[in-house]
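User: Hi! Is it possible to get a structure for several chains at once, not just one? Here's what I have:
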Amino acid sequence: MAERRSPRSQVAALRDRPSADVLIVGGGINGIATFRELSLQGVDVALVERGDFVSGASSASSHMVHGGIRYLENGEFRLVREAVQERNRLTRNAPHYVKPLRTTIPIFSTFSGVLTAPFRLLVTHGRGKPRERGALLIKVGLVLYDIFSRGGGRIPRHRFHGRERSLRQLPRLTPGIKYTATYFDASMHSPERLALDVLSDGAAAGRERARAANYVAAVGSREGGVRLRDETTGEEFDFGARVVVNASGPWTDLTNEALGKPTSYMGGTKGSHIVLDHPELLEATGGREIFFEHSDGRIVLIYPLKERVLVGTTDIDADPREPSVCTDDEVQYFFDLIGHVFPSIRVDRSQIVYTFSGIRPLPRHDDTVPGFVSRDYRIEHGWIGRVRTLSLVGGKWTTFRALGEHMADEALALLGAKRVASTRTTPIGGGAGFPTDRASRRIWIAKHGRGHDPELVSLLLDRYGTRADEVLAALPRTPAEAPGLPRYFVEELAYLASHEDVVHLDDLLLRRTSLAFIGGLTRGGLAAAAEAIAPVLGWSAARRAKELERAEEILLREHRVTLGGPGIAPLG
Ligand SMILES: Cc1cc2nc3c(=O)[nH]c(=O)nc-3n(C[C@H](O)[C@H](O)[C@H](O)COP(=O)(O)OP(=O)(O)OC[C@H]3O[C@@H](n4cnc5c(N)ncnc54)[C@H](O)[C@@H]3O)c2cc1C
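Assistant: Yes, the chains can be modeled jointly so their relative placement is included. Here is the combined structure:
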């Protein structure tokens, strides 16, 4: 894990030596992947993120690490092949966070879509209304997917089942189905933590040379570089670079505009999710992702995660200047789709514990239906004065390593430098030496437990991978559970605050832990979290009160969380 740092030491490091060969703007997964990649090549690299790390599109995903079977329909074979390869690599390089996930598609017809799909692919390319996909089309897609997955090792092939057998396996599924198809993709249970691991590996590889700071925005350009602003103090300073990588996701055009070189590459679409605390629905999923087509042709999912059920998502054209929040219409859409596949299960707003929403960084798509816009990425070259720029357009979570590799290669070419290391088989963070079977898990727990209760060691192993070792070292023999924050410990929260660039209380609740995601937060819980981290961050009583107010406001406004109450808050 990252070394212990005094608060804002990374900003001081940028100001003390205000230049680097490459400056990356944007600390989502793609900026972070590029940072690690360049740092491993020995490049002098810096990264700035205007909010917290991974607080943009990267914190709004469906948590899928997938080839994107649906993209076959759009003819995106390159992307699907790359995504499947990256999925397989991630199950090996980051087994602590990325796990194979059994996925079942309920199918309602045999032929539908077979004729329209090639037509859409060859002629209309996504214009017009999507049609329901029938069994035959899904079969063709899954065969192709199996072919791409070959060599995946840990990923079994797909299976088709008729109605009776499907209902035996998933008895709460609607009797209206004709078949189910079951195949394997993967999911990441803690995307934000995975990203922080990639970041911390990049920083460790670069030692003093690689610097990454959150709450620092790129706000303008100067001869030979970029104007940066520390968002916690408002102070501005100039930073020189030979290459600027614009990895600001859905805000790529806005960043280019701020840097004085407007572009119109982007056309993001908004997607929302709800998280339900609903044991009956959880059980009905049978531990699988239920991935299917809703009546409007959109592909949606219902899936178990952290003992909750994640339901998503929508795909609506959006303006990145506007905040992205899950609306009542979207909630109703999610309820309808749950009713479509599990008609005997009742859901209501009191079971929603968390919502989240974000904008996909998609390319500009004019009249293409949002669901059919290319999910592939490209890199655009430009200049600001003498400085070369590389703007990322697109880029999924799943393909972050491959994208970081491509982006780094483009930057290396501009610098006239050579690649010296590959990340294809490099373990990520707490994925290094992570025990993947029961026997090796037992051995790990016995060896690294430091006298702690094996159950606690197991919990932290799931939470941090093998980096649990470092967290355990910071914990007393019997750590104190933070009041109102079940299964989180005071010293654990303090450790995260002092080692992982926590600036605000909401960074801890939303991105260093799953506390907000799993729901059940109360004012008392928030106060306990603030109390746990205040000493390491040097917070006064007044700062603590401000942080509590800010966290409560963000939870309410962006995630519709009502502290201590059931269900979601009305839209403000
Ligand atoms: C609803 C939804 C569901 C998705 N589901 C999946 C999925 O299941 N699987 C999958 O593989 N992908 C999924 N994706 C796609 C994936 O999440 C994104 O494509 C990916 O996270 C983009 O990462 P990024 O780093 O390019 O952008 P971002 O994560 O948005 O990062 C860009 C960062 O740049 C920062 N920034 C902006 N302007 C500035 C500035 N001027 N100065 C400094 N910083 C700045 C922003 O604050 C932001 O943090 C989903 C996306 C959405 C929205």
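The radius of gyration is 23 Å. Residues 114-129 have pLDDT under 50 and may be disordered.

User: Great, thank you!
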